[in-house]
Amino acid sequence: MSHVPTPVAPPHVRRIVALGYCGLLAAMVYLGLKSEWEDPLITIASLTIFALGMLPLLGWLRRNDDTYPIVEFFLFTTVPFYAIPVLTGHEALVNFSEQTVLEAALAVIAFQLAGLCGSAASASSFRPQRTIRAHWWREEILPEAKMHFTAYTALLNTIWLFVSQFTQLVPTEWTGTLRAIFFGVGIVSLFIQGRMWGSGTLPTALKVLFWFNLLAQTVLTFSTLVLINGLSLLITAGVGYFSTSRRLPWIPFLALVPIIAVLHNGKAEMRYIYWSNKSLTVTLTQLPAYFTQWVEFGLNPTANERGNEKEKDENLAQGLMQRASLYHIVCIAVETMPERSPFLLGESYTMLPAQLVPRMLWPNKPSPQASVRLLAIHFGIQSEEATEGTSIGFGMLAEAYANFGYFCVCLLGFVLSWLFRRLALATTHCATLSPAGLMRILCIVWCFSVENTLALWFSSFYQACVAIGVPLLAWKSLFND
């Protein structure tokens, strides 16, 4: 039997990996020393979450293979949304006992370990000869060198964001479906253009259009005060660039991080003003003043008004880490279930099958948003009336605990990681613009939809797959040589 050698990473990739491991160690030491929890087990558990979220991604970089890091990004999201908030003392955690905080940490660790086990099980049982080899599934519809048109398909999402946010042309009942469709088309287009830029095949004129689309979509998405959607655009474009160049886009990274830090730090105040008063809307001409106000809140948040300049700088950096949190939602689930409220026993998952049916065939089908309302009421966070006006991001981890406790948390982590790893392995040498290649791109992007419940996640993912896949398959069957 011949042995297939492991690809040797080029020097600049090895430097990135070494820098990553050193940065991980330094960050863990710093955060561990800064932690103010009385129970050292909480600090140890949160550092464990931090490490388990970072190590798979560094391992993928070190392997330097051709698989897409779907599982790795899926587990990485536990760092900003679960590890960092508890290590930096998120303000919402003061409402819980240290015992509850520790139990929530154990739930996250169980989710991560189950995910690692699912990924390992998928890799060990993977047999290339048994994967889907259908012609339609793996064959490219167009070669990547001829995908310059994606600069214009990305423009469709820019136009959609403008129309949906600043006009009343879109019927409310179609907003969710159209949002998923245009976002899916736009995100795949940006990913492909990032790959073309990294491989040196993107012309200068299209580079300008690429940056116009990326920045315009990011600004318009940020204006909704949901930063994770804008961040997913930036990350997807960066991953596309890195997948062919194997280099980090340092200049855009260093330029954007401080801006995002300031916006993140002022997000809570902006949400309080604009989400609590539904009559306040922002027009296109008001965007400059809107972001100016946001930056002022970010640089001088209410909690920091009396501090000196050094304290403001420290609080700004800490605020970025604290405010992207789902950890306190897990604490609510752990504290509520089953002492005060019984487990849901799968009730929030009953909306899943209905999402496979197009709304045009079933106009009154259950909305995936019903799972969010169910959790909000069951946790005692909102009344039934309040859920009609405000939506809370619970995340799949807290939802899993609310249904069957730790068992469901482990099952969810194992199954999703198994599926993501199997998809990454099965599509290793697939063309970018093939059904299989598009599926893996969408999976990477949707890994960052961490605030969604499973029904919301699946619904938007399914709609994006249909919106992109059906036209491409139709094109292939019509123009197949």
Write the layout of secondary structure elements.
Blueprint lengths: L10 H24 L5 H24 L6 H7 L1 H10 L10 H27 L10 H4 L11 H17 L5 H28 L4 H19 L4 H19 L4 H16 L1 H10 L10 H13 L9 H15 L3 H10 L32 H10 L16 H10 L1 H21 L8 H12 L7 H26 L2
Q: What do you see in this structure?
A:
This protein is 67% helix and 0% strand. It is mainly α. Helix 7 (150-166) packs parallel to helix 9 (204-222) and helix 8 packs across helix 20 (454-479). It folds into two domains: 18-103, no CATH class; 135-479, no CATH class. The chain is built from 20 helices and no strands. The two termini are 39 Å apart.
Keywords:
481 residues; mainly alpha; 2 domains; 67% helix; globular
Oligomer: single chain
Runs in which pLDDT lies below 50 for 5 or more consecutive residues are 303-323
Number of spatially distinct domains? 2
Radius of gyration from CA coordinates: 22 Å
Largest sheet: none
Distance between the termini: 39 Å
Q: In one word, what is the shape? A: globular
Average pLDDT reading: 83
Strand fraction band? under 5%
Strand segment count: 0
**SSE ordering:** HHHHHHHHHHHHHHHHHHHH
Question: What structural class do the secondary elements suggest?
Answer: mainly alpha
Number of helical stretches of at least 4 residues: 20
Helix percent reads 55-70%
Brief description of this entry?
This protein has 20 helices and no strands. The protein is mainly alpha-helical and 481 residues long.
